[in-house]
Specification:
One of its GO terms (cellular component) is extracellular space. This protein is an alpha+beta fold. Helix content is 42%, strand content 21%. The relative contact order is 0.09.
């Protein structure tokens, strides 16, 4: 039964009441009893619908759980009043004059039938609102969620985009890799419509892109996120011909803007090469904010894309994708690996950076 069913019940009651109002009763006392009950029942039904409206409004606005529960209690009390009124009519019928008993019983049967419909409707609505109460209970807790691991521990185990009320922003959560709870802070893929990663300082500060495709979470967010707990970092990469590689760092933290969003990273493990520790301690550089150690220019200008450059990089995961894979030219999106004693660049088709709280 949908949301319009309740008003239909009220209309049915109005029709019954109106039809009966035109019936000429011989007994004035019986007519008075019926009219009094009609008014009481209609008023009660109106209060029920108003209560439903308040519940739905409260749920839509994500108001407090206590307020929603209070409204639900009001609905239950209104139902109790309606039941008491039905009992009152039954007593009126039993005590009424013989001339009006038949008519009173007929009207009572109609009213009780409609009241039963209202009760069934309210039971369905109550079940729906109980679900809303549970949902709001989770939302009230979600206001404390600071990352995807918090959400995972609350029972949210589906990967996708979530809203972290603590930070007032959407994030992409990977609830399937490893033991779940990963927050994706960067994602790249060689797709038809590429996101431009050659952005200025302000854009890297705020973040950009599409959480469903390619994006950078934002340096301000990385700072507040990674300074609320101790985080680990996992980097997954795919080389165009060598397949999948990964690198994990048990330490990952980003400094404030006043530090240039300085990178704190260390304690590598993985099946690639430790190419990121080289950038430890370095502030972030964009084409309009040169914080690198390259004396002859700006690394972000030469290699396109903001990053924690040194002179210039061993890893550059915000670079452009080459039109044609070229292992001899490492000026694109790159992770330097060591093979057979030689330093060889991975030519990447995709990469993703994920963080989650360190468990130990």
């Amino acid at each position: 039964m949908g949301g319009t069913w309740g008003p239909l019940v009220v209309l049915s009651l109005l029709v019954v009441a109106h039809t009966y109002e035109e019936t000429k009763l011989e007994d004035v006392v019986g007519e008075y009893d019926i009219m009094m009950f009609k008014n009481l029942l209609l008023n009660t039904t109106q209060r029920l619908l108003q209560a439903i409206s308040r519940v739905e409004t409260t749920a839509a606005k994500d108001e407090s759980l206590a307020e929603l529960k209070e409204t639900m209690r009001g609905i239950s009390e209104s139902l109790a009043v309606a039941n008491q009124q039905a009992i009152a009519v039954r007593e009126s019928v039993n005590n009424g004059a013989d001339a009006t008993k038949t008519e009173l019983r007929r009207f009572q049967d109609q009213i009780l039938s409609k009241l039963s419909d209202v009760k069934l409707f309210m039971e369905l609505k109550t079940k729906h609102m109980e679900d809303q109460v549970a949902k709001l209970g989770r939302i009230s807790v979600n206001r404390l969620a600071g990352d995807c691991q918090d959400l995972y521990e609350m029972g949210f185990n589906a990967s996708g985009v979530y809203y972290l009320q603590k930070f007032g922003r959407q994030v992409l959560c990977d609830m399937e890799t490893g033991q779940g709870g990963w927050l994706v802070i960067q994602r790249r893929a060689k797709v038809v419509e590429q996101v431009d990663f050659n952005r200025d300082w302000h854009e890297y500060k705020a973040g950009f892109g599409d959480l469903e495709a390619e994006f950078w979470a934002g340096n301000d967010f990385l700072h507040v996120l990674t300074n609320q707990k101790s985080y680990e970092l996992k980097i997954d990469m795919v080389d165009f011909e060598k397949g999948s590689y990964w690198a994990s760092y048990s330490t990952f933290r980003v400094g404030s803007e006043s530090s240039g969003y300085a990178l704190d990273v260390g304690n590598y493990s993985g099946n690639s090469t430790d190419a990121f520790t080289y950038h430890h301690g370095r502030p972030f550089t964009t084409y309009d904010r040169d914080n690198d150690l390259y004396n002859d220019g700006n690394c972000a200008t030469y290699f396109s894309g903001g990053w924690w450059y040194d002179r210039c990089y061993d890893a550059h995961l915000n670079g452009v994708f080459p039109v044609t894979p070229d292992r001899q030219n490492a000026s694109f999106i790159t992770w330097w690996a060591h093979e057979n004693g030689m330093k060889v660049p991975l030519v990447l088709n995709s990469v993703a950076l994920r963080v989650k709280p360190r468990l130990h």
